[in-house]
Description:
This protein is an alpha/beta fold.
Amino acid sequence: MNIERLRKFDxxxxxxxxxxxxxxxILLGTILRRNHDLVIRKQLxxxxxxxxxxxxxxxxxxxxxxxxxxxxxxxxxxxAEVKPFAELMGVFDEIVLVDTSHFISFFFSSLxxxxxxxxxxxxxxxxxxxxxxxxxxxxxxxxxxxxxxxETNSWQRxxxxxxxxxxxTSPVYINYNQVALALGANIxxxxxxxxxxxQHNQLNEKVAKEQTIKIAFAPFCSDLGREREFLPEHWSxxxxxxxxxxxxxLIILGGKSDVHRAAQxxxxxxxxxxxxxxxxxxxxxxxxxxxxxxxxxxxFFTIDSGLxxxxxxxxxxxxxxxxxxxxxxxTRLAPFPNLxxxxxxxxxxxxxCVHVVAIPPCRGNxxxxxxxxxxxLNQYSTGGWLIISDSATPKNI
Length: 397
């Protein structure tokens, strides 16, 4: 299922199931009077189906919980696309996959995942906007079910045992830390978190820099908010202004789902910047290998992406440049120390929108990103978008 179909499936099926489950949840909670002490005796389950970068933002919380409960079983329920990010974290004993490619495979893989999470001591649902993960939490019969609430997801009430306020204007990792603190963990210093990540992934060896300037380049993000991306012609302008005719090797990084777009980008960059040496590793390397390539580079160029979170955990002497538009970097960038970082964010009135609304007001015409490469967009930032109705086409005024 593509992301739009998955969202519709989640909304309609999830809504029906929650309506059916809520009365039973309230009744059983009253009858059984289970002990909801905030302690993990045997197993802690975490759910994060979409967004590997967002899962990495939970590393301070999860590593702190791992230190608090070193001998307990930590299970992650996720998708195949997020699994590589989870493996880099080094905190989970078991990773259970939910197949979102088709309705039937989704159903049967979810049943298997429920079996793995059955009557766990705690289940943390990091999917803030999903109804089906709320249903999953309830069906797992976990003793303590942790979720996050805000005004638009009140469906979780009476189904989730412990709801934490989720402030969309605050850093994501601070919201995640609430659960770890409630379970008795002390949030580790962020330097200790970064050092653990580097050591776990064997990225702590010094890499000799070559004479040729090596640029690790991550221009792609997940399908949750493609408005974060630049077009190929935008990247060619940025790279030309930055590197000119210098002897530069550009290594393009990305996953298997980015292969087609990477080919188009490479073709455009070779035509626009013939002096630039380009090496495409998209879909050819594991996530850990991509991390090693970032560590070996002189600079790292990216947008709001999962690889950006990896680069920031690695730190070191790699200069990181990231471009932001539909997301606010203050909500995504944890304070890892010893970073050489240039965060580029010129806030427009309609930003942030990704992770805030389901449909961005620009409907994909991401002026928040285009403003960095075009000079004729001031009318949008001062006048804004005129939206007549949900089905209308945005118009600039």
